[in-house]
Model the fold of this input.
Amino acid sequence: MKRRHLLAAGGTLALAGLVRPAHAAWTPSRPIEFVAHNGPGSGPDVFARALISAIEQDRIFSGRIQVANRVGGGGATAMNYMMERRGDAHVVGIWTSLWMSLPLVQAEARSLVTEMTAIARVAIEPAVIIVRGDSPYRSLADFVEAARARPGQVRQSGGSPTARDALVRQLLMAHTGARWAFISFPSGGERMSALLGGHVDMMVAEPAEIREQVRAGRLRILATATATRLPLLPDVPTLAEAGFPIADVIQARGLLAPPGIPEEAVAFYGDLFRRMSEGPAWAKYVEDNQLQSAFLSPADTAAFFRSYQGQLRDILQAGGVRVVR
Amino acid sequence: METLAALGQGFAVALQPENLLWCLLGCFLGTIVGVLPGLGPAATIALLLPLTFGMDPTGGIIMLAGIYFGAKYGGSTTSILLNIPGEASSVVTCLDGYQMARKGRGGAALGIAAIASFVAGTFGIVALTLLAPPIAEFALSFSSPEYFALMVLGLSLVVVLGGSSLIKALLALLVGLWLTSIGTDLFTSQSRFTFGSSFLLGGIDFMIVAVGLFAIAGVLESIRAREETTALPVPNRLRELMPSWAELKACRFAFLNGSVVGFIVGVLPGAGSAIASFIAYGVEKTVSRHPEKFGTGVPEGVAAPEGANNADSGGAMVPLLTLGIPGGGSTAILLSALIVWGVKPGPLMMTESPEVFWGLIASLYIGSVMLLVMNLPLVPLFAQILRIPVYVLFPLIFGLALVGAFGVSDNPMNLLLLAGFGLLGYVMVQFGFPPAPLILGFVLGDAMERAVRQSLTMSLGDPAILVERPLSAVMLALAALVLVSPLIGRLLRRRRAGVAV
Done:
């Protein structure tokens, strides 16, 4: 296995150096299908449409791309579909962290991203740790102290145990020894209402969804759950700067293809999304939505899948969540 | 006074010819989307969003809000005429709306739905205009124990929704509670009752259950009973296609009830418009002088839920515009549209972009009038659908039900589930089990379970949290009152009979 990878890598290098034009041999012969695992208007669907519009605006690719919503199974239907379309290079799936966490905890979800063809990682969704504007916690250390003093009585609102907010909590609790409650809500709106209403004390949110409430003084940002400071929040410390050097839990988005597609097609898509991620339309989208552009090549994306899944498995197991794979 | 002046400015914006045109287009598209089952307002807004990027933000927002309001308006049409809920929020409208249509009052039911939508929808917008900031704070005071109590109050309505047998209604409710627990558990990320199927990890879609139990089962039952081999009765005279004064008078309380219940439930981010319409229907039946007639085609049974699901739209705009919090799928996509245009919904929107804020609100008033003007003339037209002979009508209903199932997703598993729920509904009718309690359990069960588990995590396992907070205590007391109301009614009647003797 390893040797084949090396050979392939060597071959790619040789091709790149010597016979470059032959490399871009594959081009789509019919419309490309972007598979989103949820319905129109949902996160992955909106993201798929944003990618298409960035590709069109910057004239990266002139062929037709359409969104296909493969809804069901909490994402499993779309993942199964990618496996079923083995060898079909005209199908591209929009992956999110869910695509990696779902098979880890659900025995029924048998389609693994590590068995599909990695194409690219394009964006990272940064996170910030927030409290109410009138909260007594001026820093993350204040919050952790309060949780240590009253175990279980300080609360965080969030999503499911496999979501990023839960993972950050697990790492913080393991690092500090403090314990606080995690209250699951199905939607971001409900999480935010619980925080604004004073029913919980802390939340891990995306910068775009809290910008206005912070500006109005109803919320306060304690730290960013990122490796480096965010350009739009230059005064907010990272977790490490705030005194909590825990591992960075990346929530990313990108693209993948069914297993067994031609090498040339992988190269075509890798090149397409690299050029897209360097264009002005993408830069504007990333800025508007407070994301981080984070392109990874197909080979690096495959490595990212493996390392992320490993990290996720370790955190979940340490947190007592049943892991099936 | 300040509000009125600002609103006047808003009207000046919204009444510009080009914005009026966008409003009209939005209302028109929304009505169509509402009529078609399966395709909801959230999906439509998402699909049209890219087209509006080139537009002036105010016009774009006005059009999208028109779609959002219009879809709720149009949802009742197929509920009444074909027993197919066009949107999740119009399931309850099927109960009496379809029965009215079978009695030849289909046009009247459509008219009442349109008028109730207008009255309650406008009430919701007025409340939004005058009360938005304080009522948003009220919504924030609602925590998990309050949501739990609200869901219990909703579930207690099973005693009024059920037919002759309370036991059968409760059994149907339990089946609904079980069905809604299928899927992935939010709190543990573990699967429940999926029987090894990855498809069921996402749970069963509400539309599939509702369309199967109402539309498919209804057709099967009609075929078995061989009741109408000719078309349903449709009056010829235009006057008889519209609601009569007596029918409208019977709906007086329903208009108010639907308005208030719909708005309050709409403001809460953790409750949906389906819940609002169920509660309004339950309240209507509880206070009615002839509760036994509900389900046989009474106009109040259409007016209350239709009003509620339209007042809900105004309510849902409150947390969106004042706090930047979306309460559901449609408002979430509206929020992302607003952000794309550089409008930032949140606590500062009212002061920083008053022209967009008030322009949007003014356009809601205009949209509400437009929808009424557009929908009332359509009533006689839509009512003609019932003239179609059954050998065309039944396949049409099946076809629309399939479209609805495909609208949810193009997974063939959904078609199997649809057929399964159709058969289940048919069997239930044969054995005298009412389908409405099952739907009630399905809609509320999930939210109630979540609220209980959230509350218990907050209280470190102490169940007292569910009853000790004043708002939840009041709602639980009301639920208890509803639960014993049939008993009280029976006692009162017995005493009255005794006096007469």
User: Anything to note?
Assistant: The beta strands of chain B are 183-184, 191-192.
